[in-house]
Design goal:
- It contains 15 helices and 7 strands.
- It is mainly alpha-helical.
- Strands 6-5-7 form a 3-stranded antiparallel β-sheet.
- Strand 5 and strand 6 form a beta hairpin.
Length: about 525
């Protein structure tokens, strides 16, 4: 087309020309890139020109009107539009072309050459136009689709890189004229700008990636939180309990077989005949259990159970459910600590009454040794227990020496030790007694107080075990009914006492003890 034709006649577009398969398309810049001002003419191709393909519908009029002509810069030569990069013969790489003249409002599909295709290349029918957003720069089309025509910018005749007719298969093609990138050619860079609306990515990967993104992510399954008791989980406590039970069973078996072997020796057997496990009490000790002994015994068990429960709550609590403060003011303490301290006071009062009545009545000789024979008899009783050949039981009249020593330790050593250590850790201990605090620091008291509580727990378990295994009805009648006769009276009293204690353990909750605590101070949430 001449220069005058470009000015006065509408610009026609040619469809994309398909070259021989297998050759990579020549890279070309975007259609909006300006053509060089003084390009050097390239060698014209000698192959005959291929017939034109029918032009596709496009907005070429507006594009041709806005695009600068190359005639002004190329000496009035014929105006040609760059053909799209088409695959050349197998193994023939396309030569890089010169940048094409800019085209205004170019559609998303690559541009096609006007009037004539590449010299010597057969033209192909036009393919439908690739969809794009209005005014958006070109985007690559679907993979494998034929190139779609678009309004290409006219290139100057004889511009560097003019297309050369493709040679026969296997012959290298001449450097081609710059053209717009072919639609769907992955090697050609796309023009900068927003991608065409709805255009899928090359290779068909966009739908797959979008489907993967739209796929709802599976919510991670919540791990079940382990039950924590104190500073260990329930499973850890189970392992500790299992190991402890297994160790106790093994140790018990060793002790039993060792004691049986030892008591079977003649020398040991004759020694046990001399010390059967108990000695006679003084004559002033009356047999039986008076009323004060039975009642203080029950109250001791009742208060001890509540003290152990409240003490464990104080030890394990992270955040107290409520606090208590004296009416006259002072430091606030947790309501569990208030309950623990109050029960300690009641337990101490009960113990003091028991000790007073013990010495007044003369029954102190039942739990305080009166002869050095208590030690060999206690060892003899221990061997009899260990060999499962238990000593004779006659608690209505006398305890065996091992029981006597144990009860004496509980009343006169363990109980005062629990009181002294508990007082040191309480708010009643003087804070400004520097010398006393240095001699008896609180950490030392804490280290003694908890093991003392464990001693009481072990004692209660062993005591109840012996009561049940050495004649339960007889022993319960002694302590609860006050009679040496056989019957169910003591058992019924013991069951009633046990139910009262269990009910108190459930009743000592912050909601129920708060009204009682408010009588002696102020109870508040914090």
């Amino acid at each position: 087309m001449s220069n005058d034709d470009a000015k006065g006649q509408p610009l026609k577009l040619n469809p994309a020309v398909a070259q021989a398969p297998g050759a990579p398309s020549a890279p070309a810049p975007a259609a909006n890139a300006p053509a060089p001002s003084n390009p050097e003419p390239a060698e014209a191709a000698q192959a005959p020109e291929a017939p034109q393909a029918p032009a596709a519908e496009s907005t070429t009029n507006e594009s041709a009107a806005e695009a600068p002509t190359a005639a002004a810069t190329n000496g009035g030569g014929p105006l040609k539009l760059g053909a799209p990069s088409a695959p050349s013969a197998p193994g023939a790489p396309g030569a890089p072309g010169a940048p094409a003249a800019p085209a205004a409002s170019a559609p998303s599909a690559p541009a096609a050459s006007e009037g004539a295709s590449a010299p010597g290349a057969p033209s192909a029918p036009a393919a439908p136009k690739a969809p794009s957003a209005p005014g958006a720069p070109s985007a690559p089309g679907a993979p494998g689709a034929p190139p779609a025509p678009a309004a290409g910018a006219p290139s100057a005749p004889g511009a560097p890189g003019a297309p050369k007719a493709p040679s026969a298969p296997g012959a290298p093609s001449a450097p081609g004229a710059p053209g717009a990138p072919a639609a769907g050619a992955p090697s050609a860079p796309s023009a900068p700008g927003a991608p065409a609306a709805g255009a899928p990515a090359a290779g068909g990967k966009a739908p797959v990636q979008q489907a993967a993104q739209n796929k709802p992510k599976e919510k991670p399954k919540k791990k079940r939180e382990p039950v924590v008791i104190g500073d260990r989980t329930l499973g850890q406590w189970g392992k500790i309990a299992g190991i402890t039970i297994a160790g106790v069973v093994v140790l018990a078996a060793i002790v039993i077989f060792g004691a049986r072997w030892l008591t079977g020796l003649d020398s040991v057997s004759s020694w046990m005949d001399k010390y059967p496990g108990e000695y006679h009490l003084p004559d002033f000790v009356e047999p039986g259990f008076p009323w004060w002994a039975r009642w203080t015994h029950f109250l001791n068990f009742f208060f001890m159970a509540l003290i152990i429960q409240s003490g464990l709550r104080v030890r394990q609590q992270q955040k107290p459910p409520a606090v208590w403060q004296p009416k006259k003011g002072g430091k606030k303490i947790s309501i569990n600590l208030w309950l623990h301290t109050s029960l300690d006071i009641l337990w101490i009062v009960n113990g003091v009454l028991f000790i007073v009545m013990l010495f007044v009545s003369g029954h102190w000789a039942r739990i305080i040794p009166t002869s050095w024979e208590v030690f060999p008899n206690a060892l003899s009783a221990a061997l009899q227990y260990a060999s499962m050949d238990w000593p004779a039981e006659n608690g209505w009249v006398n305890y065996n020496s091992l029981q006597q020593l144990t009860y004496g330790i509980v009343v006169f050593i363990a109980a005062p030790l629990a009181i002294i250590t508990g007082l040191r850790m309480s708010e009643w201990w003087p804070k400004k007694a520097d010398k006393l605090n240095k001699i008896y620091p609180a950490p030392l008291a804490r280290k003694i107080h908890f093991p003392t509580m464990l001693f009481f727990v072990v004692f209660i378990i062993g005591h109840v075990f012996l009561v049940v295994t050495t004649g339960m009805l007889k022993n319960l009648n002694h302590m609860f009914a006050g009679t040496p006769a056989e019957g169910w009276g003591g058992f019924l009293w013991a069951v009633g006492a046990l139910l009262i204690t269990i009910g108190a353990l459930f009743a000592t909750r912050p909601l129920l003890i708060a009204p009682v605590a408010s009588k002696f101070g102020t109870v508040s949430p914090r």
